Amino acid sequence: KYEKRLMNARIFGVRHRSFMYGANMREREEFSRCFLPGQPAQVSLPPPPPPSPRAPGLDALHSLCKQIYPDQSNPLTVTAVIKYWLGGPDPLDYISMYANSGYPELGVPPHWHYISLGLSDLHGDGRLHPKPGPGRPSGFGFELTFRLARERGETTPPTWPANVMQQLAKYVFNSGNTLMPGDHVSWHAPLDGGNGCITQILMSQDPQLPTSISTPHGDVSFVQIVGVTSEELQAAQHWNGLGVVNLLRSARGCGPWLVTDMRRMHSAMEDDPSIAEKIQCGIERDGSNTSGVSAKCWWVQITNDRSSERYREKRDDSDDDEDVKPIVKTERLSPCEQQDANVSDENSIRALSGLHLTFNLEAGSLLPLAIKGRVMHGRHFTFKSILSHSAVTIVAPSVTGTFVSKEKPYVVQGPWLQVLLSEELSEKMAEEFQVFLNAPDKREIQLPKTFSWPEHNLVITIIND
């Protein structure tokens, strides 16, 4: 099955980060993955506690935390006043906050350790998660953690990380997608609401908690939120998240436990040019393992009938109103997709004579990654629309299991559009898309901006976010 993760979840837009389409699409040349060095600290767990009428899954997580923090049996906890299954807004029942003294001799500063309770199944009675089978994940199969550098003289933990964790949990519950080490989240604002440079998120494995534990309701892993700069996020997008996380472990201001320091003013690449060099070498050697992103995008077929183009322009006029809303409340289909939806034939395959793609600026700025980091390495890249159930997958000639061909480079099956790029066209597109890499501030790019390749009957337009 073709299943690739979308790594650019934008929480306030409820962007769907992962998806699956049934097709045997394979890349001939697999990317090399970069894993974190060593293994996390192993914690020997006591036998599972006897079933509790209160919350057996919660008891199991509390038991683990007591082993890590035996002197903090009653930590400060952020609690959802109205639980999610009762109509409350916050999916996480609790967020426990522990004081961690760190290991200064190992480069781990004193910090606050936040652990969520609620993405896994705490109750096991079906009130929020379906009951799992043996050996299955508990709920979504993971909980979030976060490590925040402790200020000198600080006696109580800040509560703003709890809001970040609740927002990420809302994304998971709304989309049904899980978060994994190596994923990244485009947050686009200081995590604490201040004026700092830590504005984006990478996901890692918590270095102190076990890889996974078994609870009465299934297995639970622990995924740590790591606050990073925009430059570090871009490096993860153009190379791979785990590789960047690995390098951050040796960087000043992050350290082996990836403690987020909101006072950090420079990226790891600025502080240590050797890190920038390693990332650039990784990009040139491996390309990118970011196989797709969520985006505001749509497409129309280019034909002699201009009605489709008029429909697109009309849609552009309405974008301004929708884009200012924090949550996408409606879903839009392109004209061609609407025809497919009317006949409800997900299996129909239709070749297009020409294609006009439209992306918002954030998605469009990743076109160099899609072409140079993926397609020119013999891989594929997908834009999953947040405006509809559609997806656009750009593929290289070496990708097998597709329904495009040299004679039919633009083919749609139900809501899924595939676009085959020849080596010659990929090189032309990479050269033209260099404008996104050369611009110091992408907001300075004059929009809308249209790229056209008439000999291939292909047009791409970039519009404002």
From TrEMBL:
Residues 277-462 form the Suppressor of fused C-terminal domain. It holds the Pfam family SUFU_C. Residues 88-264 form the Suppressor of fused-like domain. GO terms for cellular component: cytoplasm; nucleus. Gene3D superfamilies: Sufu, C-terminal domain (3.30.1360.230). InterPro entries: SUFU-like_domain, SUFU_C, SUFU_C_sf, SUFU_N, Suppressor_of_fused, Suppressor_of_fused_euk. This is Suppressor of fused-like protein. It comes from Temnothorax longispinosus. The lineage of its organism: Eukaryota, Metazoa, Ecdysozoa, Arthropoda, Hexapoda.
